[in-house]
Amino acid sequence: xxxxxxxxxxxxxxxxxxxxxVSEISxxxxxxxxxxxxxxxxxxxxxxxxxPGSGHLYFDLKDDNACMAAVCWKMQAARLAHRPEEGxxxxxxxxxxxxxxxxxxxxxxxxxxxxxxxALMAMLEQRRKALAAEGLFDAARKQPxxxxxxxxxxxxxxxxxxxxxxxxxxxxxxxSRVLIWPxxxxxxxxxxxxxxxxxxxxxxxxxxxxxxxxxIIVARGGGSVEDLWGFNDEAVVRAVAAGTIPLISAVGHxxxxxxxxxxxxxxxxxxxxxxxxxxxxLADLSARLSELQARLLRGTRARLDRSTQRLGDxxxxxxxxxxxTDPARQRLDLTAPRLEPVLRAFTRDRRRSIEALHLPLxxxxxxxxxxxxxxxxxxxxxxxxxxxxxxxxxxxxxVVRAGAVRMLQAQAARRLExxxxxxxxxxxxxxxxxxxxxxxxxxxxxxxxxxxxREQTEGRLRAQEAARRLAALAPRLTAERRGQLEAxxxxxxxxxxxxxxxxxxxxxxxxxxxxxxxxxAGRTAALELExxxxxxxxxxxxNVPSPRRGARKPPEQGSLF
Length: 561
Known about the structure:
Elements: H1 22-36, E1 40-50, E2 57-62, E3 67-72, H2 74-78, E4 89-99, E5 104-114, H3 117-133, E6 151-156, H4 161-173, E7 177-182, H5 190-202, E8 215-220, H6 234-242, E9 247-251, H7 259-263, E10 266-267, H8 271-278, H9 282-318, H10 322-357, H11 361-396, H12 402-495, H13 497-502, E11 507-510, E12 513-514, H14 518-522, E13 527-531, E14 534-538
Subunit structure: Heterooligomer composed of large and small subunits.
EC number: 3.1.11.6
Protein name: Exodeoxyribonuclease 7 large subunit
């Protein structure tokens, strides 16, 4: 029997290696790849991008020679500052792993950033062209800004300087009601919050608990392209384009341009300029209204003056109405005294005639009725004749007809009636305005007078307090200054040469000043010694001066006589 038996027929070499399952070899490969490439940064161009309903993000990352699959899970994809788009060059940060079901490796993406500013601007330009092709930036879609918005909504950060500048400018120009919608103005939360704010403001119904704004201002201060990137988001642009409320974009400074500026109804260079564009100046409006009111009053007064003058001119051209009846009245006055006796005599004669006939009562009544009817007919005929005569005389007069005058008077009266409410309203408004101004001025004057009186009282109290303190302080200051002066005087006396002389010293002076040495004293003929109680003149030994000769007296002049 052989010590080593040959392998069985058909057995392959190396059959002693244990076989591995597919899962085991896949797990080994995964551990090796994840151990060697725990966290990497990869630069490449985005190829195919897929966004399924699960919320995860799948895309390819490629260059000229290779392609790598990349996946970003739902929670991480929501926090990405820049979403990858096809054709965009990016730098991704993540970890390398394998996908066992398809026997491939892939990159789990944690962070995405553009590969330089050029790539970011190229993506921005590509997005701008795509949105412009849809007509979101067309001028026909833009709405006019209201002249006097009652409610203004401001979408911005509640803690920055932008909202304070806007509120301060609105308060100075035209105080309005402002709704502040707080949002993040940079970072990953900026775009969804701004888009949601614009959509919700446009959904507000009139008459609800929250007033519907007449104007929306989206504002943010200046910053870099990355800081302002949230306002370039497609969701923000579509929310602005779909809104029905006019919107002013005030993002960044004058040199900063974002996509929301193209979609907005009006672009402001700065947030302060947006507040100035939103409302006019209240003082200018008041001055304009006052000017228009004065013009209306002047025009109304001039119109009434012209109508009054025209009516007076027409009245002067008519003539006196009494002139038409004065002749007839005069004739009546002349004939009236004769008419009464004639009528009495006529009535008496008729009564006698009737009594002589001895007619029955009914015949007499019929006769009287006939006579009365005849008299009435004669009176009517006489009245008609009088009217015809009056009409003939009136038509013969070269004056304006009464109907035209009445028509003009009626027209003037109607015009005055039509203008009366306007005049009353204008007068009431002017009176109310003047009263309000007088009330405001009176209030201001009262406040100023009260302030002046208060300041005078406070000044008087301060003056009294200062006088009291000065009166109490003056003796103490005088005593302190006197004590200091006396101390200085004592110091002066102590440090002065007089005190030194009291201790037995003396000052030697010569003709040329102080003598400070024995040699100088020996050369001096006369010296002066100063003690504390006086001065003494001395002569050095050997330098006693000779007595001076007496001066010769001039000879006396004898007398000539």
